[in-house]
Amino acid sequence: MPVIGCRCAVCRSTDARDHRLRSSVLVQAGDINIAIDCGPDFRQQMLRAGVESLRAILFTHEHNDHVAGIDDVRPFNYMQRADMPLYATAQVAKELRSRFAYAFDANPYPGAPRLLLQEIWAQQPFSVEGIPITPIEVQHGNLPVLGFRIGRFVYLTDVKTITEAEMQKVEGCHTLIINALHHQPHYSHINLEEALELIARLQPQRAFLTHISHSMGRYEEVAPLLPEGVQLGWDELSFSVPFD
To answer: Beta 56-58 vs 84-88: how paired, if at all?
Structure first.
C-alpha cells in the first residue's frame, strides 16, 4: 500500500504504518541472515534494512508477490562469491526454473543471478547454516503453501486453512506472524476474525498480522480493536525471539 490509483483513506494516509511493501521477513541468527520470500520489493527491502550478507532464501509458494525479486540476489552473489541457496518445494522450484529460465540455463549469460535450488518437503525439517527449520504446510485456497518455524518463531502467510497435524507444529511458539487480509471472507486468505480465532487457539505470547489489504482500514483505527498481544505488522518492524 498505497494501491495504484486508489484514493481511499488508507492509501492517502501519511502514517508510515499504513505504507506496506510485499510481505517478507528477514531472520537474523547471530551473523546469519535468512530471507523468507523475495517479492518485487526485495531490492528496496534489502537496501532499507542495510543487509550486506544473505545466506539463503526460503520460499512459501510461487506467486509473483513472493518470488519476483530473485534477479536482485546478484549483488549478494558478487559480495559472497557464491551461488544463492533457494529452499523450495518441487512445485515452486519448477515454477522458478520456468519464470527465471535465463538464470537456470546450462550456460547462463555472465550477469545472470547465480542460484542453487534446494528441494524441501512439508514433512521434513531441514537446516540452513546449522539453524533447524520446520516447514508447516497450509492451504492458500487450493494451493499448498509452506510456513516456517525457526526456534520459537513461526511465519505463516497466505493461509486459508490448516490441518490439525500442521497446527501442532505451531503450538508453543513465542512469536507468530500470520496473514489477515481484511474484514470480509475471502476464498484464499483468512480474514481478521479468522486470524484472531487461530491466534486465540494457538496462544503465542505475541502475534503480528501481515499480508494486509487497504480494506482492513487505517492502522490507528484498527490497532485499538485488537486483543492484547496482537498487532498489525508494518514495514521495518523488528523484534527479538528466544530460540529455545
So the answer is: parallel
For the domain made up of 24-120, the CATH class stated in words is: alpha beta
Per-residue pLDDT of the chain (244 residues; tens, 9 = 90+): 999 999 999 999 999 999 999 999 999 999 999 999 999 999 999 999 999 999 999 999 999 999 999 999 999 999 999 999 999 999 999 999 999 999 999 888 888 999 999 999 999 999 999 999 999 999 999 999 999 999 999 999 999 999 999 999 999 999 999 999 999 999 999 999 999 999 999 999 999 999 999 999 999 999 999 999 999 999 999 999 988 7
pTM exceeding 0.85: yes
Strands 143-150 and 153-156: antiparallel
Give the count of beta carbons closer than 10 Å to the beta carbon of residue 29: 17
- Can you identify the CATH homologous superfamily of domain 6-20+131-232? Ribonuclease Z/Hydroxyacylglutathione hydrolase-like (3.60.15.10)
